[in-house]
Design goal:
By secondary structure, this protein is α+β, with helices and mostly antiparallel strands. The protein has 4 helices and 16 strands. Helix content is about 25%, strand content about 30%. Keywords: Membrane, Transmembrane, Transmembrane helix.
């Protein structure tokens, strides 16, 4: 055999050996080392950590081959204890690999300060929405005689009136003093029978009373638009804001549209 053929044979053998070694290394890396390193085929169910205290979470996760990472942004819930888990990522029930980091958001030790909004002269329903949006809690509602029905007259914190812009802890309880729609001024119900309906309404509103239901009664004996009945009757003691119902004449042949 010539030297050239011998050289070619040796090169071929070396190439085969190199390919075999390379294949062996690749097989070992992908089929043995990598699955072992990444725990291929092994998964852990993420537990529900909400309500757990910070001191409990790390040990609890370590027992399940998971790690804990606290997020920089803390939350705050007034009802929850300080340093308990409020949120987590991944969510409970998710399947993850062992030694996966579970990111948790903790409840702050101290409530952040917020500026008190202005609720005075705001309808009660709107005031309650504002309180909730600011992260505050609605406390007691105290009704007092006032013509403003369900209108906020005062806002209180810890028993004292609080002004707009004053800083208070988030989650604080705000008590509201609200008008019951009836003033504390006592007056005598005027006599509006025989008056024109517009004149009677002007007198009712001008007296600090509230116009109630207007009922129309067919009659041929009283001019159209005349008040023929009122409730409460004249002479009765009334409080500001109380309602007055009236009955007004209309022609018998008049058609309602």
């Amino acid at each position: 055999m010539s030297d050239f053929k011998v050289g070619i044979k040796k090169i071929g053998i070396h190439l085969l050996i190199i390919l075999a070694i390379t294949f062996g290394l690749l097989f070992t890396f992908f089929q043995i080392y990598l699955p072992s390193y990444t725990h291929h085929g092994e998964s852990v169910t993420v537990p529900d950590l909400e309500g757990f205290h910070y001191d409990e979470v790390q040990e609890y996760l370590a027992g399940r081959n998971l790690l804990m990472e606290v997020t920089l942004d803390s939350g705050f819930e007034a009802e929850a204890k300080p340093l308990v888990v409020l949120k987590q990522n991944p969510k409970p029930g998710a399947k993850v690999k062992q030694e996966r980091k579970i990111y948790v958001t903790l409840n702050a030790k101290n409530a952040p300060l917020i500026k008190m909004p202005n609720l005075v002269n705001t309808p009660l329903k709107n005031a309650q929405e504002i309180i909730s949006n600011f992260g505050l809690v609605r406390g007691d509602i105290v009704y007092v005689p006032d013509i403003g029905h369900n209108a906020v007259l005062k806002q209180k914190y810890r028993g004292r009136e609080i002004k707009e812009g004053l800083e208070i802890p988030k989650g604080s309880k705000i008590d509201l003093v609200v008008g019951d729609g009836l003033g504390n001024q006592v007056l005598t119900m005027p006599n509006i029978i025989g008056m024109d309906d517009l004149e009677a309404e002007f007198l009712i509103l001008g007296s600090g009373l509230t116009m109630g239901e207007i009922n129309y009664v067919e009659t041929d004996t009283v001019p159209k638009g005349t008040v023929i009945k009122q409730l409460p009757p004249s002479g009765l003691s009334m409080r500001t804001g109380e309602r007055v119902d009236v009955w007004v004449s209309k022609l018998a042949q008049e058609i309602d549209f």
